[in-house]
Give the backbone structure.
Amino acid sequence: MINFNLPPFTGNEVEYIRQAIKNNKICGDGEFTKGCNKWIEERFDIQKALLTTSCTHALEMTALLADIQPGDEVIMPSFTFVSTADAFVMRGAKIVFIDIRPDTMNINEELIEAAITNKTKAIVPVHYAGVACNMDKIMEIAQKYNLFVIEDAAQGVMSTYKGQALGTIGHFGCYSFHETKNYSMGEGGALLIKDYKYIEKAEIIREKGTDRSKFFRGQVDKYTWVDYGSSYLPSELNAAYLYAQLEEADKINEARLNIWNTYNKELKELEMSGMIQLPYIPEDCVHNAHMYYIKLKDIKQRQEFIAYMKENDVQTVFHYIPLHSAPAGKKYGVFHGEDEYTTKESERLVRLPLYYGLQQEEVEHIVRMIKEFFR
Ligand SMILES: *Cc1c(COP(=O)(O)O)cnc(C)c1O
């Protein structure tokens, strides 16, 4: 069976975990956590990066930093993972879902402005498959209405928009290092902060509402409880695993892009003959091969496709059930405007295996089976 995903492993992970243990530092903010933060800050040119226990938690931190209050409205696509909405629902926000663009599956930037009310506090663009949303337009709208832009860049680590790293364009950016993402620490993520003025508050929220970070830097004599907060600090053991991956980030990225490009080249003929649709990458975007998906005729054909591939030892998966049609989505959100593409396009989409270590022969087998299905 060719798995849909396997967690990335490059070689130094175990040694670094051993070092963390030897350093007698397995809780958070040790050398490996700091190393990961610094790597992200330097590589992506961002004021501050803080490793977190997940991307969901990084999003939760942004909801606190943006001071989201009950009744506030947050605009996002419905075609996304539940965490994008959950983080704001937990603060009592009402989620305003808007339609996606059928080409990139990203939020349709042209529909955002009409969904803004005097309760709107933030826009949350999700960079689906590591392909950027139209950030110029989104930032322009946010500036005009004085809104926060919180990038859900869970899938966008190492991708860029007009040369800028995803997650560094809005006020806050959130990365995921879950085992299904390009770079992993099992469970984990990062919060990226653009504006200097939010850094101290973010450090306090991450450390249970204490000024412990200041204490460790020698800026205060004792640390104490200064504000609300939680425990969003990952263990050094997880950070050690991630550090090994970040050191090999270019190698992982290249390997993934090779697989992505092979799929794209080999499946072109099926697209030309009108059988399927391949992903679209806008000119301003450099992507990170987070995902390879194809779009079929409809949900029925997708079901047949997934079953056929499974019979031929290939695991393929679909996602997402649009959030506005889920029970919690109905309870906590509304869909603004018409659902022209969200449901229709999500029902056609299927993801092919793509992970670091997937072999060329396996990709060829998958492509062969896809072509056979359409024959
Ligand atoms: C994976 C993912 C998340 C959640 O990431 P975790 O690190 O598992 O919390 C959030 N949003 C999107 C778009 C994702 O793909």
In short: Residues 54-56, 80-81, 83-84, 126, 152, 154-155, 176, 178, 189 surround pyridoxal-5'-phosphate (CB under 6 Å). The chain has a mean pLDDT of 97. Residues 149 and 333 are 19 Å apart (CA to CA). The chain is about 40% helix and 15% strand.
